[in-house]
Every structure is written in structure tokens, then in C-alpha cells.
């Protein structure tokens, strides 16, 4: 009895495994569209995945970029193009693109492109150049970041530029009357805050070995001195070394929380939301975070201001936007381009701000939202948006990842006390020069 | 005639799977490692023989990572094997709640790697993680200790975390090994008048040795291939990187597939040498 | 005498529980801490305000995160099922051949199989990806499971074959004299006494599959197939890290394997009883 049961079980399991395999294969070949590598539906604008007259495309992006089902349906109704959404975590998108490209495949037709990837994607020839009208170019300063050799490789949809924030109540408590205009004032005020016991670690500074640390140094140098890289791609010593020494001083005077040396950059930023830090130069998303009960315990105390500069307020700020691009391997390029045009149009940017809290990249839309009161506690947000520029003379370099890695490691070592600012600078300078020369 | 084919027939599914999904890819990766292949220079791909390997073996970065790997390997294998073995003995004791105990023992293994990373980040955070709360609360230190800021401290913590999640596996393997010892042997030994310690030494330990050995091999592979924990605890920093992080960074971050494949191959070779070493000691069949 | 044994056991039990469950307790505390209190500088162990929002969000059906988590768990279970269905029979067949049959190349195959244990995922993932793309095997639970099987096969085959080797040849020979073929002697003699090892192998496959991350990331990360390990990692995005939510999700994600291990132990004991006849 038992024997029969077991042998039946064995045969059944082998058959089941085979059957699962066959049916699995069928379903995956059904949902395959175009030449893409196995993207499958998350939300489809209609059932069955049958081809509309306009064709169909796959769209890979992190969750904050996914439009609502209604919005997608509207797009399909208007153009006849079906959209298959593939939601992937941000960090993983790059890995997938890399793996897919190594196999000569497109991971999707429309794909998220972070500003830091543009350089390498361009060198690896993974993005299809796009056409953008001059008016859009004028209204969308962040487009510059995605332009290389005159080609627009992706259109930004989420604007994330650096804005400064400080806690006004703490300033009052420490009897500091005015908002800081220069970095030196910020430094002096932080010392006062600490001495008077109002705030122990007033300056939020990411120092962990991650992206945010190197970008922080970059925009610090940029807003302080207006330049980061020389035209040949090497680091500008006067500017970057000065910024590095500024950071070193902050660390030495214990104006930065030691936890910032190893906690994630985002956690360092968030300290301002709990009152544990006073001054932050960080993402625009903190405008809304500072009014959100779930995130912030010091609501009403934080004000966004223009980023300080050397002798007065900074004349430029850096943006770290995210964009959408069309992959070179895509077989539905026209449809993909239409999708991006639709996605980054003024109406959609307004709509997406509401549904996805995305900050629009078209300055006209940003202005409208602030004026209409849809974005609260905007402070200096609009003024800052008009100062966006790119610190990379030739566009984002193809060796960006390696360069950033060298930079954040050097800064991190300096923060941990293993190197002085001069030594850290020397290490960074050498690596960047090496990469730029290749 | 049929009898002679039978073993091969039985082995054919395994051979098929391993051949297609393991051996073919390894060979492919080896061929990548012989090329100069940077994704950011797609028109410049050509064979360079062993030059990638030479470059890597000459780089300080690689040897630094290798040292870190060795440290983690030593600590993890030692602790996991000893503690895993002890745990298996503990779990073997037949009590009413032994089922629950086994489930509890398996929990560290069941935790998704990402959550594992966050958890330990919050325990050893340089801010007010659990350890610092305890240490300051008990008055042992005035300010938070920066656990993760120095190389050896970081590596030690990584090793402890990896040990924590690897013990369940070793315990399970040893438990399985313990079950494979025929009960009859114990009875015979008891009749012959052996006391607990002798029985352990002459029966339990030798018969469990092969299982222990497989546990050690597997743990070694795990220890060499630590990745998630290092990233979670210290990001992509140079401080705590091991050769697998090095391999990942080279391949996926710097987009150098040629070199990256070569590093991966070196990782594999290292683990392979260890594996062969263990295998030799394993292949001594146990006498009854 | 007996009393000191009991104390010894009790102490071991306490240490065991603290070391194993302690971190989970901490994870639980994290999961009930509101986000803004995560970084607070106090030595207090529990947060001032306790929130069950994270669990509420994950467990109420209809919320986005909740349904994604359930999908992730479902996908992981599917992968486990397929892996077990495929892996256990193949391991058994291979183990039987390698341990109880004589043939040319036995040692070679055995060693080759074992040596593949050392191969890291990264060494094979890119060629595998190209293969999968070429054959449209992506986002398919079955083919994903074959990859898993290929990585567990060495270990489980070895475990089983070691176990099989301890079964005396006489038993099989006796059965064969009685007129059983190889297959029925396998089913009647070997299998029943091997419950413990087979179940152990199954549990190993279960838990290993449950924590797979890098392989499904590359080969099967669509919503229909991504396992809970990936789902949980996606709660942490570039800009908004929700530690509490991730911790809560982690707590929920350990439940299926934990329950399985619980049930497993019962069978292990009953299997042992059946195996006692072996002596």
C-alpha cells in the first residue's frame, strides 16, 4: 500500500514538474512583447495584452514613477499604445540594465535613467537620442544634465535639486537673528547652537561610503565656488579642497553627528526632521516631508532657504533628477518616445505631482503648483529652481561610478580619521585624473 | 546490459541540469574573463588572455579584500561549526517542545537577507542602536561607541552576523547526521558497558564527521561569498570589502565585465581549493 | 544527578533562546517604532509612541504594500514547491546511484558534483541570463527552480548518499532474493528508513529557496514571480527608507518557514521511529 502510494507520488511529482514547466513556458511567451527580455504585466491598460494599433511598450521604473491605472488608460485611449509596467526597485534597475545589456537585450522599451547613469549609458550606447523642442529646453533646466554631445538622451520627470533648510525655532532659542547667507555664517551659527546647548550636532552631513557623500561634496564645492571640475574633467583643486576642508572642520568641531559617518545618507538628512540637526542642504522632497506628521516631529520649525554661497547666496545649485529614456535595443522606439513625451508634458507633470508627489521639471509647472498652494512651505523653492546648472563641463562622465566610489571612500576615510583633508583630496584627485585621461 | 546502464540513467537528470546550468556558464564566464570588455566601450572588445588576472593580482585593492575575506572566513567557520554542532546536540534532546525549538533555531535562516542587514544595522549603529543603548544604559560608556568605523571591529561584527544566520544550517546538517547513525550501534555499545563520553568519542563523533565536514565546506563557501551583510553594515566602502564585493563592484558598478569575471573566477578558485582540501579528508569512508 | 542535568539543560535553553530570538525581538521593536523616532538618541529600549501602523498596512488586504507582500510570499512558496518537486526526486535518484551502485566514473562524478558547491552565483549569472533570454525562460517559476536545484543538488545528494550508504546491503539483497526489482527494493527498503534525511534535505531546500535574492533578481523579478526576499528589499528605496515597515514585513516573512520547521520536527521524530527497525 505504502509502496504504491510512494511510487505514484514519484511519478506524479515528475509529471507535475514537467507540466509546470510547459505551462510556465507558455505563459511567459504569451506575455512577451517585442524584443524585450521577459517583462511581464503588472498593470496593463487593457486585458489579454493584445496589440493595439499603436503597438505596445514596456516601462520599467521604481514605484514612485509609476502612473496610476487611470492615467495609463488615458494614454492608451489617446494613442492606442499599450503600456506594460514592470516595477523594479531603484538600485536594482541599474543591475538589470547592465545584465541585460551584456546580453544584448533591452530590459524594457522605456526605462528609468538616473542622472548619474547618463554618462556610462551614453558611452555604452544604450540610449536612443530624443528630440526636444527649444521651449521645453528653456523651461527645463535639468535637461542639461541629460544632454551629451548635443544629444538629449533622456527627459527628466522628477526634479530633485539641492535646497537648504534650517530650524528657525532653534535659531530663535540661540538668539541668532538672521538666516545664513554664506557657508561661513552657517559654520559660525552651528558653533553657537552647539555652545548654547540648543543643538548638539547641528550640521547634517552624510559621510558614509555611498553616493550621497560624494554628491554632497560636489554641490558644496559648486555652491561655494561655482565650479567642481575643470574643463578637462579633473577636479578643480581650489574649489574642491576648500569644500573638503570645510567638511573636515565641521567634523573636528563635532558639529556633525558621529553616527553620520556610518549611517545611510538619508538617515543623516532625516535628522533635521526630528530636531536633532539644525541645518541641511538636501533634496527638495524635504519640503513636503517637513510638513508631514508621519515623518516630522518638529513641524512648523523648518524653513527652506536658498543655498548659501561663499560671499553671498549661491548663484548655482545642482540637480539630481531622474529621467526616462528609450533603450537602444528597443523595438518600439516611436511608441516609446510618444510615451515619454506624454509623461513629461505639463499636464502629466501636474497630475503626477498629485498622485506621486513628484516635483515637476518644467519650471512653469513648478511655479503654478506653488502659486496654487499645492506645494506647501515652499519657501525659496522657486527661486532656487531657476539657479539649476550642471557642474560637469562635458556632461556626466562615463566613469562616474568609479569616480564617485573613489570620492566617497576618500571622504569616508577622512571622516573616520584615517586621512587628513589634504590626503583625501590627493587620493581623489589622482583617481579622477586617471579616469579622465582614459 | 540494462543493469549497466541503470546508474547512468538515474544520474542523467542531474548531469543534464548541472551541465547546462552550471558547467556551461562557468566556461562562458571564463571566456569573458579573458577579454578586455568594458561596457562603456562597446566597440573595444578583444581577447587579452590572462592580462586581467595579472592586473587584479597586482592590485592592492584585491589583496586588501582578500585579507578581509580570510578574516571573515576564519571567524565564521570556526564559530559556526562549533556552535552549530552544539546546537544540534541540544536540539536532539527529545522533549515535548523540541519541535518549537527547531522552528526557533531555523528562524535566523528564514529571515530575508535585507531585513537581516537592517536589523544588525540597528543593533550596531554608531548612533543609538541596541548595543549602544545597552552599553550606555548600563554605564559602561559615556558616548555611543562607533562599532562600524574601524576595520577589524567592522569585520568582526560582520562575521558574528554571518555566523548567526549560518548556524541553523550547520545544526540541521549535524542533526541529520546524528539521525543517520543506526540506533543499534548505541545499544550494542551500551551493552558493552561504554559510558557516555566513550560512546561520544568512538561512535557519535566519527560518524558525524562527514556531515560536519560538509557543513564546514558549505559554511566556508558562504563565508567567502558574504555580500549583503557587508553592504548593509558599511555600504560600498573600502573598509570592509571582501573579494565578492570587489567582484560585484568591478562588474556591475564599474561595468568592467572582463576584469569582473576574472575576479569572480579567482573567488571561485579560492573556494575550490578549500573545497578540494576538505573533500580529500571527506573521502575516507567510515568503517563500521 | 538528574537535577543538575535539568539545570544544565535549562541554562542552555535560556542562552539558546536569547541568542536566537533576541534579534527578532529587536526587529519587532523596530517594527512598532514610528519613523521619526528611529534615530532618537535615548537609551530607552522602547519608543515613546508605539505604532501598529506598519502591520496594519501590510496585513489589510487591498493596500498596495500588503498585496505585494502577500504576492511575494505566494511566489516564494511556489518556488519552494517547484524546487522540492524537482529537486528531491532527482537528488534521491542520484544519491542512490552514487551510493549503492558500482560503475565506472562513480568517484569522478561524485567529486565533480561536490566541487560545484563552491561556485558563487556571480560566476554563472550572466551566461545564465543570456541563456534564459534566448529561450524565453525568464520570469518562470519552473526554470527558476531548476537553477535553484542546480545549486542545492550537490549538498542534498551528498547528504542522502551518505545516509543511504549506511543502510546494510544485506537488506536490499534479501529483498531482491524475494523477487523485488531495484525499484521496489528502493521503495520498500530504502525510502521508508530514509525519512529523516529526505525531510532534512527538503527543509534545507525550503529555507535556501526562501532566502534567495540575487538569482531571482536577475532571472525572475517581475511581479508575478518575485519572491518575498526581493519584495521586502523594495520597501527601501533610494529616498524613502521605511525601516519600520521593512522590519514588520521581515517578521511576517519568517512565518511560513518557521511553521514548516515546526511541522517538520514531528515527522522527523516519527521517521526516526520507523528507522529504528534498521538496527
Descriptive labels:
heterotrimer; B: 288 residues; mainly alpha; MetI-like fold; 12 helices; 2 strands; 75% helix; C: 279 residues; globular
What does this protein structure show overall?
The complex is a heterotrimer of chains A (438), B (288) and C (279). With 438 residues, chain A is an alpha/beta fold. Helix content of chain A is 44%, strand content 11%. A 5-stranded mixed sheet of chain A has the order 2-1-3-11-6. Chain A has a 3-stranded antiparallel sheet with strand order 8-7-9. A two-stranded antiparallel sheet of chain A has the order 4-5. In chain A, helix 2 links the parallel strand 1 and strand 2. The N and C termini of chain A lie far apart (74 Å). With 288 residues, chain B is an all-alpha fold. Helices cover 75% and strands 1% of the residues of chain B. In chain B, helix 7 runs antiparallel to helix 10. The longest helix of chain B has 33 residues. Chain C is an all-alpha fold and 279 residues long. Chain C has 13 helices and no strands. In chain C, helix 1 crosses helix 12 and helix 6 packs antiparallel against helix 9. The chains are: A alpha/beta (438), B mainly alpha (288), C mainly alpha (279). Chains in contact: A-B, A-C, B-C. Chains B and C meet through helix 1, helix 4, helix 5, helix 6 and helix 7 of B and helix 1, helix 3, helix 4, helix 5 and helix 6 of C.
Please report the distance between the alpha carbons of the first and last residues of chain B: 33 Å
Cα(first) to Cα(last) distance of chain A is: 74 Å
Helical segment tally of chain A?
A: 17
Taken from the alpha-carbon principal axes, the silhouette of chain B is flat
Number of helices of chain B: 12
> Biggest chain pair contact, residues each?
B-C, 98 and 106 residues
Gyration radius over CA of chain A: 25 Å
Residues in β-strands, percent of chain A: 5-15%
CATH superfamily of the largest domain in chain A: Periplasmic binding protein-like II
Overall morphology of chain A: globular
Largest sheet of chain A: 5 strands, mixed
- By oligomeric state, this entry counts as heterotrimer
CATH architecture of chain B: Orthogonal Bundle
CATH architecture of the largest domain in chain A: 3-Layer(aba) Sandwich
Whole-number mean pLDDT of chain B: 83
CATH class of the largest domain in chain A reads Alpha Beta
Task: Output the helix-strand order of chain A.
Answer: HEHEHEHHEEEEHHHHHEHEEEHHHHEHH
Low-pLDDT sequence parts of chain B: none
Amino acid at each position: 500500500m505504502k509502496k504504491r502510494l510512494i511510487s505514484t507520488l514519484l511519478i506524479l511529482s515528475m509529471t507535475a514538474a514537467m507540466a509546470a514547466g510547459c505551462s510556465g513556458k507558455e505563459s511567459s511567451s504569451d506575455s512577451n512583447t517585442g524584443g524585450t527580455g521577459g517583462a511581464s504585466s503588472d498593470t496593463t491598460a487593457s486585458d489579454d495584452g493584445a496589440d493595439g494599433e499603436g503597438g505596445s511598450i514596456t516601462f520599467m521604473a521604481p514605484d514612485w514613477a509609476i502612473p496610476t491605472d487611470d492615467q495609463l488608460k488615458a494614454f492608451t485611449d489617446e494613442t492606442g499604445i499599450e503600456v506594460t509596467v514592470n516595477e523594479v526597485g531603484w538600485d536594482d534597475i541599474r543591475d538589470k540594465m547592465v545584465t541585460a545589456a551584456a546580453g544584448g537585450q533591452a530590459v524594457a522599451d522605456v526605462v528609468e535613467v538616473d542622472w548619474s547613469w547618463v554618462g556610462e549609458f551614453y558611452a555604452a550606447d544604450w540610449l536612443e537620442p530624443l528630440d526636444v523642442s527649444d521651449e521645453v529646453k528653456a523651461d527645463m533646466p535639468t535637461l542639461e544634465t541629460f544632454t551629451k554631445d548635443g544629444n538629449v538622451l533622456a527627459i527628466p520627470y522628477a526634479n530633485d535639486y539641492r535646497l537648504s533648510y534650517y530650524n528657525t525655532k532653534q535659531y530663535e532659542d540661540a538668539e541668532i537673528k538672521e538666516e545664513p547667507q554664506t557657508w561661513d555664517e552657517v559654520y559660525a551659527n552651528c558653533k553657537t547652537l552647539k555652545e548654547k546647548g540648543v543643538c548638539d550636532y547641528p550640521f547634517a552631513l552624510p559621510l558614509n561610503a555611498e553616493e550621497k557623500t560624494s554628491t554632497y561634496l560636489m554641490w558644496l564645492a559648486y555652491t561655494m565656488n561655482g565650479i567642481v571640475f575643470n574643463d578637462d574633467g579633473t577636479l578643480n583643486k581650489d574649489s574642491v579642497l576648500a569644500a573638503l576642508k570645510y567638511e573636515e572642520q565641521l567634523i573636528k568641531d563635532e558639529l556633525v553627528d558621529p553616527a553620520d559617518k556610518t549611517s545611510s545618507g538619508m538617515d543623516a538628512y532625516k535628522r533635521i526632521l526630528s530636531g536633532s540637526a539644525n541645518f541641511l542642504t538636501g533634496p527638495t522632497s524635504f519640503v513636503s516631508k517637513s510638513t508631514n506628521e508621519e515623518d516630522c516631529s518638529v513641524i512648523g520649525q523648518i524653513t527652506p532657504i536658498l543655498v548659501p554661497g561663499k560671499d553671498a547666496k549661491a548663484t548655482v545649485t545642482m540637480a539630481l533628477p531622474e529621467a526616462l529614456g528609450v533603450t537602444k535595443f528597443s523595438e518600439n522606439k516611436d511608441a516609446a518616445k510618444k510615451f515619454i513625451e506624454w509623461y513629461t508634458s505639463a499636464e502629466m507633470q501636474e497630475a503626477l505631482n498629485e498622485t506621486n508627489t513628484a516635483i515637476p521639471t518644467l519650471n512653469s509647472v513648478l511655479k503654478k503648483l506653488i502659486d496654487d498652494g499645492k506645494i506647501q512651505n515652499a519657501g525659496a523653492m522657486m527661486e532656487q529652481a531657476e539657479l539649476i546648472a550642471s557642474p560637469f563641463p562635458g556632461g556626466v562622465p562615463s566613469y562616474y561610478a568609479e569616480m564617485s566610489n573613489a570620492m566617497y571612500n576618500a571622504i569616508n576615510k577622512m571622516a573616520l580619521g584615517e586621512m587628513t583633508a589634504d590626503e583625501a583630496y590627493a587620493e581623489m584627485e589622482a583617481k579622477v585624473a586617471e579616469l579622465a585621461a582614459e | 546490459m540494462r543493469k549497466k546502464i541503470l546508474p547512468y540513467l538515474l544520474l542523467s537528470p542531474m548531469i543534464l541540469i548541472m551541465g547546462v546550468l552550471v558547467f556551461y556558464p562557468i566556461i562562458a564566464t571564463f571566456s569573458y574573463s579573458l577579454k578586455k570588455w568594458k561596457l562603456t566601450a562597446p566597440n573595444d572588445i578583444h581577447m587579452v588572455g590572462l592580462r586581467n588576472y595579472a592586473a587584479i593580482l597586482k592590485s592592492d585593492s584585491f589583496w586588501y579584500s582578500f585579507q578581509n575575506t580570510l578574516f571573515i572566513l576564519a571567524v565564521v567557520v570556526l564559530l559556526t561549526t562549533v556552535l552549530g554542532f552544539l546546537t544540534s546536540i541540544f536540539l536532539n534532546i527529545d522533549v515535548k517542545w523540541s519541535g518549537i525549538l527547531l522552528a526557533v533555531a531555523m528562524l535566523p535562516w528564514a529571515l530575508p537577507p535585507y531585513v537581516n542587514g537592517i536589523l544588525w544595522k540597528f543593533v550596531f549603529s554608531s548612533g543609538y542602536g541596541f548595543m549602544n543603548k545597552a552599553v550606555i544604559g548600563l554605564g559602561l560608556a559615556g558616548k555611543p561607541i562607533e562599532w562600524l568605523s574601524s576595520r577589524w571591529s567592522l569585520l568582526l561584527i560582520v562575521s558574528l552576523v554571518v555566523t548567526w544566520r549560518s548556524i541553523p544550517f550547520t545544526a540541521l546538517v549535524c542533526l541529520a547526521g546524528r539521525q543517520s547513525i543506526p540506533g543499534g550501534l548505541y545499544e550494542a555499545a551500551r551493552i558493552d558497558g561504554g559510558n557516555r563520553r566513550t560512546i561520544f568519542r568512538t561512535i557519535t563523533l566519527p560518524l558525524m564527521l562527514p556531515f560536519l565536514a560538509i557543513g564546514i565546506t558549505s559554511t566556508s563557501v558562504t563565508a567567502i561569498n558574504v555580500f549583503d551583510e557587508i553592504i548593509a553594515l558599511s555600504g560600498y566602502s573600502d573598509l570592509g570589502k571582501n573579494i565578492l564585493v570587489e567582484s560585484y563592484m568591478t562588474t556591475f558598478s564599474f561595468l568592467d565585465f572582463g576584469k569582473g569575471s576574472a575576479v569572480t573566477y579567482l573567488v571561485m578558485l579560492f573556494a575550490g581549493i578549500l573545497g578540494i582540501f576538505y573533500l580529500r579528508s571527506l573521502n575516507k569512508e567510515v568503517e563500521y | 544527578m538528574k537535577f543538575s542535568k535539568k539545570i544544565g539543560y535549562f541554562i542552555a535553553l535560556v542562552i539558546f533562546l536569547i541568542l536566537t530570538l533576541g534579534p527578532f525581538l529587536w526587529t519587532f521593536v523596530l517594527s512598532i517604532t514610528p519613523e521619526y523616532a528611529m534615530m532618537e538618541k535615548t537609551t530607552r529600549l522602547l519608543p515613546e509612541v508605539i505604532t501598529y501602523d506598519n502591520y496594519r498596512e501590510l496585513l489589510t488586504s487591498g493596500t498596495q504594500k500588503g498585496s505585494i507582500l502577500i504576492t511575494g510570499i505566494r511566489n516564494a512558496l511556489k518556488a519552494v514547491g517547484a524546487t522540492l518537486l524537482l529537486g528531491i526526486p532527482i537528488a534521491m535518484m542520484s544519491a542512490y546511484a552514487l551510493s549503492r551502485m558500482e560503475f565506472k566514473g562513480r568517484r569522478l562524478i561524485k567529486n565533480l558534483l561536490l566541487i560545484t558547491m563552491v561556485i558563487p552565483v556571480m560566476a554563472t549569472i550572466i551566461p545564465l541570463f543570456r541563456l534564459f533570454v534566448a529561450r524565453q525562460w525568464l520570469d518562470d517559476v519552473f526554470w527558476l527552480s531548476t537553477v535553484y536545484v542546480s545549486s542545492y543538488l550537490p549538498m542534498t545528494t551528498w547528504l542522502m548518499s551518505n545516509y543511504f550508504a549506511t543502510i546494510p546491503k544485506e537488506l536490499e539483497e534479501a529483498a531482491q532474493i524475494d523477487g523485488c526489482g531495484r525499484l521496489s527494493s528502493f521503495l520498500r527498503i530504502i525510502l521508508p528508513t530514509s525519512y529523516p534525511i529526505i525531510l532534512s534535505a527538503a527543509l534545507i531546500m525550503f529555507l535556501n529557496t526562501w532566502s534567495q535574492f540575487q538569482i531571482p533578481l536577475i532571472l525572475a523579478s517581475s511581479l508575478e514571480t518575485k519572491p518575498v526576499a526581493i519584495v521586502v528589499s523594495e520597501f527601501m528605496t533610494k529616498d524613502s527608507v521605511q525601516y519600520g515597515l521593512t522590519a514588520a514585513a521581515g517578521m511576517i516573512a519568517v512565518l511560513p518557514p518557521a511553521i514548516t520547521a515546526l511541522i517538520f520536527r514531528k515527522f522527523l521524530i516519527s521517521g526516526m521511529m520507523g528507522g529504528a527497525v534498521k538496527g
